[in-house]
Request: fold
Amino acid sequence: MSESLENCMNDTMKHILLSFNNQYLSIVLGIILTAIIQSSSAMTIMLISCLNSHLISLESAIWILMGANIGTTITGQILTLDIGIIAPLLAIVGVILVLTRYQTVGEVLLGLGLLFIGLDFLQIGLGNINIDIFFKVNHPFIMVVYGFILTTIIQSSSASIGILQSLVIKNIIPFSKAVYMIFGFNIGSTMTGILTSIISNNDAKRLALFHLLMNTIGTAVFYLLCTYTSFVSFFKTIVSSPLQQVACMHTLFNVITTLFILLIDKYLIKIVYLIFPEQYVIANPQEDC
Reply:
């Protein structure tokens, strides 16, 4: 689904990315575009591609990436809606459209239908097996590590959120533990950019490092907040549905983290430049014949 949406909008999106230089408009743009393509990983790769081609400044890419962090949480919000009943219909319509000239649209609908069908099967399967490893682990830091590993492996925080929602609704993991996995998801989601930037220029490496620092700082702040205060209990009184608790915490984390990073982004940019400094090429003097 994400690939099809990206293919639909690839050229248009790159043109839009290049036309935004304002900080706040760039963040809003990142939110909207990532909410449409449902993949912050795809957005990260696209930004790295623009940086490699010197089509966009590092600052603009950072602002758009901040918005992408928020836009990717829309998937979790969609999963809270009870549209699993029409999932097979979406898949069938998608298959029909794939055989016509509307192939890309069909792939989007097919992917969306399969997403909800898969989650339904996941919930059914989880109800028939005994998973007690999560109950044996009580330390919040271990749950963060679990979340990081899961998202690093499957390369999608949106898919990780869907899996976690299934675990929470089946009471396999209580929300008080699941919240720490959400933090790990956000760090794990930065691995796509880091892997992609290895063979890219320094600006791409700076963007990937900024993304890692941003989500790590957000995780540290929320980790302390949830561990040493009654924030999680208070949050559960506001949001009662387990599905919505996971989705809303994911959204809240990224919104608050983005707002906080806006206050210190200049300092983080200095840090990434210190780690990946500008490279100056000094020409060798011509040798005498």
About this structure: The mean pLDDT is 82. The radius of gyration is 21 Å. The chain has 15 helices and no strands. Residues 242-275 form the longest helix (34 residues).
